[in-house]
Design a protein that fits this description.
Blueprint lengths: L3 E5 L6 E7 L7 E2 L4 H5 L19 E4 L4 E4 L2 E2 H7 L2 H10 L5 H13 L5 H4 L11 H15 L9 H26 L13 H10 L18 H13 L7 H10 L5 H13 L6 H12 L5 H9 L20 H13 L7 H14 L3 H5 L6 H11 L7 H22 L16
Antiparallel strand pairs: 1-2, 2-3, 4-5, 5-6
Helix pairs in contact: 2-9, 3-9, 3-18, 4-7, 6-7, 6-11, 7-8, 7-18, 9-14, 9-17, 9-18, 10-11, 10-18, 11-18, 12-17, 14-17
This protein binds s-citryldethia Coenzyme A (SDX).
């Protein structure tokens, strides 16, 4: 017997039947694509809390258990035993790379990390001090004009070339955006440095001391810093159908260029309710300033008449600890001496967590720390400026967005994303 759900309209007694589709992991779905045709009504789901917008094989989240898997691999395994680039390869190719594949992938991304010289003039259009997220969104859209041939990839190698290009260039775009925002010269990527080390290099090096950045000094890049940032990139790589990924898929559904879809994803991520939260968290911890003032802000977060929210807390899916937050907390504890983490900020964060996890308001609403709650303390210790926190999220997430874009384009059963409404006007 085909599994179905029957809905009865108690105004007319009419019954409607909808098919249930089973998942390989997690919740099944009720296929309501015929709902309007059958009932003449729309379903309503504010913020899509109960709506599956697509089918996907890329990332699985179990919000109750606090579980996250990329292509079936747990985030703990990937963060602890694999590099960010191996995770990129996994997301794009549905399997982890062999040693040879890993080497070739790494080398290809190093070669593709350079920007066309004409594109570098785009940054001049922005005022000094411009937030790098605006520049990243513009630069990503502009990249589509240099590679317009990627509008409609046909073969696997065309999809792969298009994807690797933008994954490789995003750190350079982000670094150049930052350097422009502080009036500093661009540092070209160094092909002898790994993906993650190169990003720190392009942020920190200066032309007059470029030769000496590897000599002991305050801007020297230490392996432990590269390792910490690499883990942070891995934790941000993908996350199912979150707001920015849904935006990327929405743009994909109209047939626009993949790089403008990524540009739209960057814009969506910027909001403080989403990826912009990491920058807001650190500003909030600095504003609270001391553990003595935590109670005052917890009270404000609970006050329905106060718009104040604890940034880095709560999640649409996780109703348990965000597994990425757990990994980052472990990283904080491991690196606090090595990276000289700001103990005051850590103490404030730990006090907030400790109170929130025992307070009825947060327990009832299942509000736990999310990935953004812990990333800022580590990024600060990596001398990454606050304005670059969400661009770091973009660098990590670009591979997830483009993997989801590819999956959408290869799915023969997709339609343009065009929801309806409950009309309450005249
Ligand atoms: C990311 O979706 C993803 O996967 C995103 C992400 C990814 O990797 O792509 O994981 C990355 O965006 C993480 C989330 C980062 N954002 C923040 O940390 C901002 C602070 N958090 C919230 O604004 C909020 O929790 C959201 C946006 C994350 C989730 O919002 P929901 O699911 O729509 O939940 P809600 O707003 O309906 O809140 C439910 C209740 C409400 O109280 P009541 O109206 O029931 O009384 O919980 C309260 C909210 O007021 N609440 C909070 C709170 N978050 C929710 N109260 C105080 N502080 C908070 N942070």
């Amino acid at each position: 017997m085909k599994p179905t759900v029957t809905m009865r309209d108690n105004r007319t007694g009419k019954e409607y039947e909808f098919e249930i589709k089973e998942a390989t992991r997690g919740p099944s779905v009720v296929d309501i694509s015929s709902f309007y045709a059958q009932t003449g009504m729309f379903t309503f789901d504010n913020g899509y809390t109960s709506t599956a917008s697509c089918q996907s094989k890329i990332t699985f989240i179990d919000g109750a258990k606090g579980e996250l898997r990329y292509r079936g691999h747990t985030i703990e395994d990937l963060a602890n035993n694999h590099s960010y680039l191996e995770t990129c390869y996994l997301l794009l190719n549905e399997k982890l790379p062999t040693k040879e594949e890993s080497y070739a992938f790494d080398l290809e991304l190093r070669h593709r990390s350079f920007l066309h010289n004409e594109l570098t003039h785009l940054f001049d259009a922005f005022p000094t001090g411009a937030h790098p997220m605006a520049t990243l969104s513009a630069a990503s859209a502009s990249l589509s004009t240099f590679f317009y041939n990627h509008l409609n990839p046909q073969t696997d190698s065309e999809y792969q070339e298009m994807a690797r290009r933008i994954v490789a260039k995003m750190p350079t775009i982000a670094a150049f955006a930052y350097r422009h925002s502080i009036g500093a010269a661009f540092i070209q990527p160094d092909i002898n440095r790994s993906f993650t080390e190169n990003f720190l290099y392009m942020l920190r090096a200066y032309p007059h001391e470029r030769m000496h950045i590897d000599v002991e000094g305050e801007r020297t890049i230490r392996p432990i810093e590269v390792e910490a940032l690499d883990t942070i990139f891995t934790l941000h790589a993908d996350h199912e159908q979150n707001a920015s990924t849904s935006t990327v898929r929405g743009v994909a559904s109209t047939g626009a260029h993949p790089y403008v879809a990524i540009s739209a994803g960057i814009s969506a991520l910027w909001g403080r309710a989403h990826g912009g939260a990491n920058e807001s968290v650190i500003k909030q911890l600095e504003m609270i300033g001391s553990v003595e003032r935590v109670d005052e802000f917890i009270a404000r977060a609970k006050d329905p008449n106060d718009a104040f929210r604890l940034m880095g807390f709560g999640h649409r899916v996780y109703k348990n600890f965000d597994p990425r937050a757990k990994i980052l907390k472990g990283l904080q504890d491991k690196l606090k001496d090595e990276l000289n983490l700001d103990s005051n900020l850590m103490q404030i964060a730990n006090k907030i967590e400790q109170i929130a996890l025992s307070d009825e308001y947060f327990i009832k609403r299942k509000l736990y720390p999310n990935i953004d709650f812990y990333s800022g303390v580590i990024l600060t210790a990596l001398q990454i400026p606050k304005s670059m926190f969400t661009p770091v999220f973009v660098i990590g997430r670009t591979v997830g967005w483009i993997s989801q874009w590819i999956e959408f384009k290869k799915d023969t059963n997709t339609k343009i994303a065009r929801p309806r409404q409950l009309y309450l006007g005249e």
